[in-house]
Amino acid sequence: MPRLVPQRVSIYGSVLRVFEGKDMKNTQFRRGPLEGTRIVDLTTVVLGPYATRILADLGADVIKVETFSGDQTRHYKPLKHDGMSGYFLNLNRNKRSVAVNLKTPQGKEILSRLLGGANAFVHNMRQQAADRLGLSYEDVRRLNPEIVYCGAVGFGSAGPYSGRAAYDDVIQAGSGLAGLYAMVHGEPAFAPTVLCDKVTGQTVAYAVMAALLQQAKGGGGQAVEVPMLETAAEFALVEHLHGSTFSPPLGGVGFKRVLSRYRKPFRTSDGYMCILPYSDSNWADFFRFVGRTELLDDARFSALSERVEHIDLLYAMVEEEAPRFSNAQWQVFCDKVSIPCMPVRSLEEVIDDEHLKAVGLIALHEHPTEGAYRVVRSPVQFEAPFQIHHHAPRLGQDTIGVLEEIGFSSTQIEGFLHSGAVQAVNGEIST
Asked: Are 6 and 113 in contact (CB under 8 A)?
């Protein structure tokens, strides 16, 4: 049987062609703006899967290529069935899973054919590991000259740290983010969330989309590198480069308002509250409400630039006044005069928040094998509403279907299964 090579999915054909005498409004992108885009996803843990989930939620056909043990987040507890953890369910929705042994010649052939028919390829391996697997940009470009190749790495390839192992904590340390805590509290600390993984994942998503747009406009393929350290450092320096923006510096690093040790949720009579007067009128209303009218004409607090210079005094005063009223009383006052405020909530309370319920951010869905589970949808709303096209797949759930799509015969697929080149799921998960 002759080898079948599928046509690369064409965004140019499926998206830009609608401009040829057609109204864009009349074109139905039922799955979102990236419908018609195929992405081969060789990522694991959080950073990469978060990036490709964003792309999948926007309508892309994301094919998750996994080893036979699967993405390690499949096995985090708690879970109902091995390989289907709560961690995994929301990170990998709207994707299809193909389990391939890339160390076999057949596995390499399968991945080559997948890449030959894709718009983009995303991985988060160290680049040396990708090169050893024959997955350098040059290797992949030989299979598909038009492909967008995105490597999410720890450190940029041009620097001396290139090739080092990188995890979120490492990048929080190296980017200055952990050091910000030392500037406020006297010792460094890690943010209690995988901040750098998620920020880098979002950066991967927008970088891939920008490259896909260039591809769609006839600009061809390209290699895109998204390093965690550079992404996190740029993120930290947005406000904190500050006086060091200038050469020679006009002051040190660090934005004073954000680094005030008094910048924190304030204890009220029955809880904690973020109370954030910001504008001139906000502070005037606050001074009147707490009976500090003598501060209305204080030059130190008359303008934003002056308030930033004296922010510790202001925040200390808010801390002193906050316990006089309850959370509800603060909310009523702040809402009345448009002062930004919000009670401090636990994650359990966030899940049940009335606003988030009203906008449908968190909703119950029914997974085919895991039963009812909470889905946190994409926060972005397009004309095509958020949908789950594929619940997070079991390991190898889509192996056979995808191999058929890219032109392998049933006989070839049987051979792959028997040789151990691929793994597929048959039947339901047993308990």
From this structure: yes
Q: What is the DSSP string of 123-144?
A: E-S-HHHHHHTT-SHHHHHHH-
Q: Which two tokens stand for residue 163?
A: 């090739």
CATH at residue 321: 3.30.1540.10
Residue 414 placed within a domain: yes
What SS3 class is residue 348? helix
Q: What is the pLDDT of residues 272-328, one digit of tens each?
A: 999 999 999 999 999 999 999 999 999 999 999 999 999 999 999 999 999 999 999
Statement to judge: residues 166 and 97 lie in one domain: yes
Can you read off the two tokens belonging to residue 101? 């042994």
Q: In DSSP terms, which residues pair with 209 in a beta bridge?
A: none
Dist. CA 143–CA 140, nearest whole Å = 5
Question: What range does the domain containing 152 cover?
Answer: 11-235+378-423
- pTM, 2 dp: 0.91
Based on the fold, state whether residues 85 and 168 are members of the same structural domain: yes
pLDDT in tens, 116-148: 999 999 999 999 999 999 999 999 999 999 999
Q: Do both 160 and 293 map to the same domain?
A: no
Helix (H, G, I), strand (E, B) or coil at 400: helix
Residue type, 109: E
